[in-house]
Structure formats: structure tokens, C-alpha cells
Amino acid sequence: MDTCPPNVQRIKILLNRYVPESSSNSNKSFEMKKIIIILIILIPGVFQNVKAQKESIRLSLEEAIKIAAQKSLDAFRNNNMYLSSYWEYRYYKADKLPSLNLNTTPLDYNHYRKLQYNSVNMKDEYVLRDYFNSDMSLQLDQKVGLTGGSFFVNSTLGMVRNLSGDVSTSFQAAPVNIGYSQDLNGYNALKWQSKIEPIKFEKAKKAFIQSQENLAMKSTAMFFDLVEAQIQLKIAQNNMANADTLYKIGKGRFQVGTVTQDELLNLELGQLNSQQALNKAKLEVQRAQSGLNSYLVMDKEALINCEVPSKIPTLQILADEALSRALKNNPDILDEEQQMLEQDRIVAQTKSQTGLNTSLYAAFGLNQSADNFDLIYDNPDQSQRFKIGLSVPLVDWGRRKGRLLMAESTREVANARVKQLRIDFEQNVFQSVMEFNLQAEQVRNAAKADTVAQKGYEVTFQRFLIGKVDVIKLNQARNDRESARRAYIGAVNTYWSYFYRLRMLTLYDFVKGEDLTAEYDKIIKN
User: Fold this and answer.
1) The overall pTM is greater than 0.70
2) Which of 133, 260, 422, 501 is 20 to 30 Å from 513 by CA-CA measure?
3) Is 106 in a helix, a strand, or coil?
């Protein structure tokens, strides 16, 4: 079978017609001039046809979702939202590790007059100060999660040079200094972080997978918007062609008196309505096409021919299984757990601020000073410091107690809200399972109805041509066919929307029988 484009086939026919094998040489020269002119006319059409074929893309629902997951703006935003949560968690993990810091002041020069009491003259006077100093310190810090305190080790070195009066230089060094500090009010921020941060990160991982399923739902909606628009355009084109044919037949029958004038006017009105419907359908296709092209980040001139899924998975999902998967995988469950912990943390922090607040600081080290740098590490002296701080509220007119009661009331409200959200969530899962299980039967019924309506219209149309039925019955059959076709496309659209909504709620692939996952390492590397 010849599969060449129509214009190429026409060129072949013309070549065979104008240059037969038996043509003489004198005739061939004249005929070749004609062929050149014909080729000049037809070849641009060949290239236009090839260009149109390149711009037309056949796209299935699965392919559309895959492209959206790779190129769409939603996919870009989802990736970066996950990366933000990932680096936040990395910061929390790094904050638990020891940190080493170098602090230095290479040069600090001062030239000023200072008010100072002169014990010899028994009076205050301004004394010129002129000096510069330099210092540096190296400190290792480690937070202690068990107690909430902080352990540190540092070493310092300093120098001061007096430039006024007798010029002199002095050095000071603390080779090692070990210390520990902690609040003793009963609130351990590190302990609460260790409870909340892992849940937040796990929630972010689940939320990323859920966002991919939301993306699939959005892609499905836009895909079927274009499908419905293209189906409606085909219906409008067929209706226009049929309306033209019927109107021409009607005019011929009107001439012989077998069709009344009102029936002819009805046919003419149908032709005009079909033209309007065709124009509207073309605009709707352009709108849906532009929307899908934009979402999939495809060329705005690309023409997508959507392939309607002809098969649907044979699935009957158990509500209890779906609920179990949802409670295990859905990030909303982790969000509820995080909210409860956050409220408990706020209450604990507020309670720690209502009574006696104490703090502890202890340090032990070695230090020495000398006028010669070589001597500052010789025979260092011991240095110790131990400090306990107390803060006791005496009169605050009930502010601390009121703040605690307010935090506890807020926690109770949050608890009630979380319980209600859990009830609504479980009901949503059960409802989604019921709708999905029923929709498969709806699709099969809609497919049968579409087939029956199409055959019914074909029979009615043939009977009209031989004058067995009137225009009213023909229009009714056409309307039934259009309604059945739209109902079938709508049923398929609804099925896949329910399918991806269940995946979004449970983060579970019921076809493969496994939890949904994501390539997190690939996201981080990219």
C-alpha cells in the first residue's frame, strides 16, 4: 500500500500522465516544462504537509503525566520545596555535631582621653590613652541533647602595646579553658527538636510524593479538557457536514413537494447552528491546547492529539486496606503528630518561665601573662569560675499564670481540631474508595451507551435519507449520540481522577501493590 502524503501521490500521478514511457523525445521536452510548473505549485504544499506532521504530537495520558513530572512549573516547585526541607533537616543534624570557631581581632588601635581620678593630686583629670591590642581565640562547642546544656573548650591569646608614656608590651594566654553552661528551668529545647525535626523531614518526603500525585491529577484534568474539546470539535465537524447534506437534500425535496417550508427552514436553522457550534468548538480546542502546551512546557505551536485510554485497570479496592495505607503514608497524619508535639513544646516552655529560673555556669582553665611572648606558656596559673543565677518572680499580677493557662487552652483547641481532621480524613478515604469502585462500572456502561447511540444515529440517518423519519427524530438521534459520547469521555475522566486521588490519599500503587516512592538522591544531585 502506498503511504506517501497526498501531494506526493498527486505528483506521481501527474508524472505518469505527462511523461509516459512511450513518449517521443520532441514531446518530452514540452511535457517537462509543464511538469516543472506543476512541481513549483505542488512542492510547497508537500513541505507544508511535512511541517504539519512534525508539529502534530500523539500523546497518551501516561505520557502527559510523565512530561509534567519532568518539565512543568509545578514539578520545579515541588523539587525545590523538598530541597528546602532537606537542607533544613541537614542544618538540624549538623547543629548537633561539635563546632569549631576561630575568632580574632588582628588590630585594635585606640587614641583618646579618658577621665581618671589622680590619687596623688586628689582630683579627676583627663589622661591620654594611646595603645593598640590584638587577640585571637579558638573554641570547640558541643551541645548536650540529654541535658540541654552546652560544653565548650577554648584557647585564647592576646597582646596589648601601650604607646603613651613608657612604651610597653604585654602578652596574655589561656592554653586551655573547659566549661559547661545550662539553664535549670526544666525546658530542654534540644530534646524537643529531636522529637519534632525528624517528623518534619519525614512529612516533607511524604508531601513530595503527594505533590507528584496532585500533579498527576492536574495533568489528567487538563488532558481531558483537551480530549473533550477535540471530541466536541469532531462532533461539530460531523454535524456541520450532515447539516449541509441534509439542507441540500431538503431543498431538493422542497422543489418536488415532499418537504414543507417549515421543515426546510428547520434544516437551514440547523445548518446555521452547526456553523456556530463549529466555530465555538474550534476556539475551545485552541484554549485547551494552549493550556496543556503551557503546562507541559511544550512549543506553543505544537498540536497535541490526545489518545483516550481505551482500557482501565480491573481494581476493587477494600476500604479498610486503603485507610490503613493512608494512615501509614499520608503526610497529613504526620502533620497532626507534629502539631500535637508543637503544642506540648509550647506548654512546656511556658511552664518553665512561670516559676523559679536558674542557670549554671562552670569553667576551669590555665592562663598566664608576661612581657615576653616566650614566657606566656611557662608555669600557667589555674583559673576557675562557678556561677549560679536565679530569677524569682515576686509580683507579676498573674501574667505568667495567665500565659500558661492560655498555652494550655490553645493546646486543647488544637487537640480537638486534630481529632476532627482525623475523622474527616477517614471519611474522605472511605468516600473516595466507594466512588472509585463504582466508577469502573460507570465507564463500562457509558462505553456501551456510546456504541448504541452511534449505531442508532447511523440507522436514523439512513432512514431519513429514504424519507422514513422526519427531521425531529433525526435531530433527537444526533443529540443522543453527542450526549453519549460526552458522557463516555466524562466517565473516563472521572475514573482517572478518582484513581489518582486515591493514590494521593494513600501514597500507594494499588496496581503494583507497593508504596509510592521517589528518587530523593537524584533530586539532591540535580
Assistant:
1) yes
2) 422
3) strand
